[in-house]
Design a protein that fits this description.
By secondary structure, the chain is mostly helical. It has 2 domains: about 70 residues; about 100 residues, no CATH class. About 80% of the residues lie in helices and about 0% in strands. The protein contains 8 helices and no strands. The longest helix has about 60 residues. The radius of gyration is 46 Å and the shape is rod-shaped.
């Protein structure tokens, strides 16, 4: 923007009667006014561009949020499907543990041995929200009590071996009687 410095204004003022000086002053004033108008126009354009940028950013943010909402709705639907599955699994576990308690004696284990299954649950539920309810299993528990099947099969293997030994003993007694 062409700005008249103080000395130019004074020089033109003293040359007030000079037509050339007056014409030059008018030309400078016109140029100054033109540049001021262009600056206002640029300022307006910058303000408008800033407004459009803000509107565009809001549109992008809106689209991103809508996409996130759709993903959250999808996860919510999937999460909702866990309820019936967990209900059925919990009911099956509850029924199985009741049957296990009721039938533990049939494989030579009394109710106190069923407490070992608490350790199986602590291993199974270690990385779930129920961790605090069952405690943190040690590394030996993680190997020994890694599954209900492992514990129950070990019980049955011991019981079956004891039965086989008893049967062999009885067969030995029977064969001794038959030989006599």
């Amino acid at each position: 923007m062409a700005s008249l410095d103080q000395s130019t204004v004074q020089a033109l003022h003293f040359a007030g009667g000079d037509k050339d000086a007056r014409a030059q002053l008018d030309k400078l004033n016109l140029e100054d006014a033109t540049l001021a108008g262009e600056m206002q126009s640029l300022d307006g354009a910058l303000i408008e561009a800033g407004h459009r940028l803000k509107v565009a950013q809001q549109a992008v943010a809106r689209q991103q949020r809508l996409a996130a909402i759709k993903e959250d709705q999808k996860r919510s639907k999937e999460y909702r499907e866990l309820g019936p599955f967990l209900d059925k699994a919990t009911d099956n576990l509850r029924r199985s543990l009741i049957a296990l308690k009721a039938n533990a004696a049939s494989v030579g284990k009394d109710f106190r041995h069923v407490q070992m299954l608490h350790r199986v649950l602590s291993v199974a539920l270690f990385d779930t929200p129920f961790r605090d309810a069952f405690g943190v299993p040690d590394s030996n528990d993680r190997r020994t009590f890694a599954s209900f099947s492992g514990v129950i099969n070990a019980w049955c293997d011991n019981f079956d071996a004891a039965l086989a030994h008893e049967a062999a003993t009885l067969d030995g007694d029977q064969s001794d009687k038959e030989a006599a």
